[in-house]
Amino acid sequence: MSHTNLLHYFFLLLSVFIVLTMAACGGADEKFDEDITNQFAPNRGGLPLPVMNQGTYVAPKIPPGGYPTFRWEGERPTSYNESPISAKLVKEGKILPVEERLPWPDDVLVLPLDDEVGIYGGFIRLTSSIPGKLDSLSVSGCFHRDADGIGRVPTICKDMSLSEDGREYTFKLRKGARWSDGYPITIEDFRFAWEDLNNNKDYLPRLPLMLINPITGNGPEFEVIDDLTWKLTFDSPMFTLIESKSGAIFSGTKGCTGGSPCFYTASHIYKRYHPKYGDPKEIERLIRYYSRREWRGVMETVQQNRNYTGVPAKPIPTEFDPYFIYDGEHYGPWSGGFVTTELSDLQNSFERNHYFMGVDPVGNQLPYADGIRSVRVEGRPVAVFRCMAGECDIGGVDMLLSEMPLYAANMEKGDYSLQIYRAASGSDATVITNQEYNQDPEIGELMRTTEFRKALSYAWDRAAVNETVLGGLGTPQNWTPHPSTPYYPGLEWATKDIRFDTEEARRILKEMGYKDRDGDGYLDRKDGTGNLEMYFEAMYQHYAIVELLQKQWADIGIKLIIREGTRAYTAAERNKQYFVMSGSNYGDNPWQVAWTRLVPLVRGNAMAPTIGEFYVTGGREGMSPGRNPEFRPLAGPETYPADASGNIKHLQDIWTEGRAIPQFSSRRIELGKELYRIIASEKYHIGGLAFTGIGRGIRMRRNNVRNTPKNHFPSNFGGTKEAHYFEDGLDNVSNPGNRSKRYRSISFLDPAYWD
Description:
It is built from 21 helices and 26 strands. By secondary structure, the protein is α+β, with helices and mostly antiparallel strands.
């Protein structure tokens, strides 16, 4: 795809749409569409219309820009209802009655609704150009991330308490919760995960960062208290465990390094693949079957078989097989509302988990939908246009604000609405500077020079980018969180050095000794080898922004060469580009975001990858930060320390100290503000625009699909899928031409959107 200019990009998208439209009327895609339709065709299969518990439910009013919550605090239902499919299976003796499938009455998970009580039936269609994962589609794990991305909603874990000293986390399991195969979820599932997997060096060499105490470098001790209660004890205060950015840290089936389940896993299934419990001969057979070197590889494969596309490329049975073995492949059960039933190059399929622990506020067991179909397509533009043409119910993969006129013009024809999901992060489009670049000594020195980074900031016309690419929805600022959040450092720091001032930028560069000696419009290198050229890696959602930045920096003599980036920032690539544009959904709380982007605490950090490596390995690998680091050069002796000022070390120290302090204490808040002040002052991250939902923030939703939130943390992909439903209980594929009879198309740009 050409990226020469935005207008050409629009025309290319329009061309793709025309091609797809023609194909829908006949041609190469006709058989594809027919195949998809046939897979969706089964709807009720002779089942009766669902009878719902209606009760009394009034959805809470969400103010403009506000977030709903998945935490239920109202009266609990006293009777339960189930889907017609579940009722049929009960009658056939294949599953237990609904009262026995759910946890005990006081422990049933109740989920609030965004609109109203739903109707059973239908398959929700999604589109994707990348492999899908079940954990982004379903409420699962010990806790589920709330709509604001900050709060945690208890799921498998009914409750959690933290000791005053920040060392002891006590968790309580829901009594009577079950896996999707009907087996009870018990305390043994937690003990097995911790004692036999997480703390087994043969399986997991080291725990993830979020489970390691930053002061001592040790993981927690696990202790069973009773049949429903267990405890994690750290050897010094560790207040940030529950603040982890990723819900995976609390998941069952996976989440830790190497496929480890972190908190709990289905011990009745996975013990057979562990040498302590399983048949040695069978384990050896499976090692050969899966082409692995040891039992760990078998365990990882089996745990991932329900999570990643392409393993295997064939259907998975929907019958309730306690061993989950099909055509030689092994599968594990699930705790969320949907269970993977197919992983292939064509689509991922997810079916109702009849043992899901959750109900709506009036007692209807969730999910409402019979299943989810995530169809893989040829790329992002195709995914978007298939949704515009009515071929998905929720979606549009990484839709761009720059394409809003196109989406809005087709809303009524496509019978969809446009929703926006915005996080309180201050980093939707931020330039991350590579502080470890050493391949070119002159460029390496520039990247480490604060004044040079300030010059680049002054040369960035953020207002022009906002109006041209983002429809005026962005807020120009440094990487600082929203003013409503506790860590906001103040307007002075949010706007420090971000004014558009090319004269100031030129003055700085001149004082640094840079001139345009040959008159070609670009500054020349001091070593006399040509222009001052710099490389920028940009993902597609940021490409139009970087193109404008390229023109703006050219005005001060910087020749910017753009490379199309990937999601991975590997060790092999870390020393080959100078800038990366990134966004973050986690900028409202530095103890959620820091370990990925804001502060170098992991290997993949684009600002200082080997310093991050040093941190995460406890000094065993990578490069130490600080004024006099133990520097491991990447490009010979003519290199420069990555942290001569000591500020990167200071950022790491702030983050480490904060983990041992209660979340909303005055000291933690001050540390968070100081962290953002350093970033704003030093310009390690040159803040651009925020609060737009630039990456994953826009979604199309068919008007007859309900209970999707108006505003939502972007990485949760639009709320709890368990609560989504079709207004008439019939999906949009088995009922061609189906349109909403109650709701009109509306965009988040319409003030009535929040009514």
